[in-house]
Amino acid sequence: MSMLVTTSEAFVNRVALERQMLELGVPLATTSITTTYDLRVRGTQIAVGIVESISGQAVDAALGKLLALFFGAAWKIVDSAVELALTADGIHSSKPWWPVEDKAERLNDGSGRISGVPDLVWQAISRSYTETIEIRHSLVHRTARLRENGDLEGQSRKSGPNPLISRAQQIAFCQAAQWLAKTIESGVLNERETRRFRGSLKKLVGLHGISHTLDAPEGEVVRAIAELPVDLQLDVAELRRRLDTLSPGWIGADLELHTDYGILVGPLESAPNDVVLLDPLHPPPWLQDFGSHPAL
Questions:
Q1: What gap in Å lies between CA 162 and CA 184, rounded to an integer?
Q2: Separation CA 257–CA 252 (nearest Å)
Q3: How far apart are CA 215 and CA 32, in angstroms?
Q4: For residue 52, what pLDDT is reported?
């Protein structure tokens, strides 16, 4: 009976444990400073707050020497995705297991696609995969060495320097693997998730060599407070322009829209980039009723 990954359901089942490990060890959502921009007043008011989640310090402490273990889990997720991509392209292995080197050769030939993953993103993932094969081999055979700064050094099976992946690259690889798994499971990511996925891949440019073409901003997720005008026409494009000035490169904005009937909340990046006629009693899908006005 074949153990190869040939469907998205098989992929999700195979990597369930690894995804749980990464959710605990290298979570996609960590505590960060979140800036609030009050766009209701002339001369924007800015406040800084904390998002309640796992703190960056706690994440660092939890990682420690376990980061190599999490990297190995992430590598299995990507390896399983590679099998899915190749089988979707009509390429199969005659064995119940598929040699990594064979999969890498197929990828280098341009084979393999994942539904819902743009070609450029998949190229970055597959190249990162092939460039870390020696590191993964060293982990499996316990010849890898963890440096004091968290970098992971492998043992080369060929002539030349030993392969090395930095601590930051290991974390980015773990995050990219989680976004990839989420894409395969759900079939699509929203705009903010897509930006964060590309952002994690941008940090791996030293592995895959694809830089500005990933078009991944490196800003923050901000909170924007606005008020619905009396004519009910919300100028989303203007709100975005103001945020571009105040927080260049922002990757997401939690809009808090105050109306005469309460507060509506939603991701600003999901709104049409135009002037929107908005009925506060029947808001569009990208906005939700938050209830009465909270204290600021």
A1: 33
A2: 15
A3: 23
A4: 42
Which residues in the chain belong to E strands, given as ranges? 33-38, 45-50, 145-146, 152-153, 164-165, 221-227, 233-235, 252-259, 262-267, 275-277, 288-291
C-beta neighbour count of 208 within 10 angstroms: 19
Locate 119 and state its tokens.
């070609």
Q: Tokens 């290991």 belong to which residue?
A: 170
Question: Which pTM value belongs to this model?
Answer: 0.75
Residue 223: which residues within 8 A CB-CB, separation 6 or more? 34, 35, 36, 37, 49, 253, 254, 256
- Of the candidates 266, 271, 264, 270, the residue with the CA atom closest to the CA atom of residue 290: 264
Give Cα 210 to chain centroid, integer Å.
Answer: 16
Q: Are 236 and 271 in contact (CB under 8 A)?
A: yes
Q: Which helix (H) or strand (E) holds 237?
A: helix 236-246
Q: Which residue is it, tokens 């945020």?
A: 243
- Alpha helices by DSSP H, 247-286: none
Spatial CB neighbours of 35, under 8 Å, sequence gap ≥ 6: 46, 47, 48, 220, 222, 223, 247
Q: What is the DSSP string of 102-113?
A: HHHHHHHTT---
Q: Amino acid identity of 163?
A: P
Give pLDDT, residue 27.
82
Q: In what order do the strands lie in the sheet with 152-153?
A: 145-146, 152-153, 164-165
Other Cβ atoms within 10 Å of 12 Cβ, number: 15
Give the number of other CB atoms < 10 A from CB of residue 192. 17
200 residue type, one letter = S
Which residues of the chain are modeled with pLDDT < 70?
A: 1-2, 29-34, 41-64, 212-219, 290-296
What is the chain's alpha carbon radius of gyration, rounded to the nearest angstrom?
22
What the block records as the tokens of 172 is: 């980015």
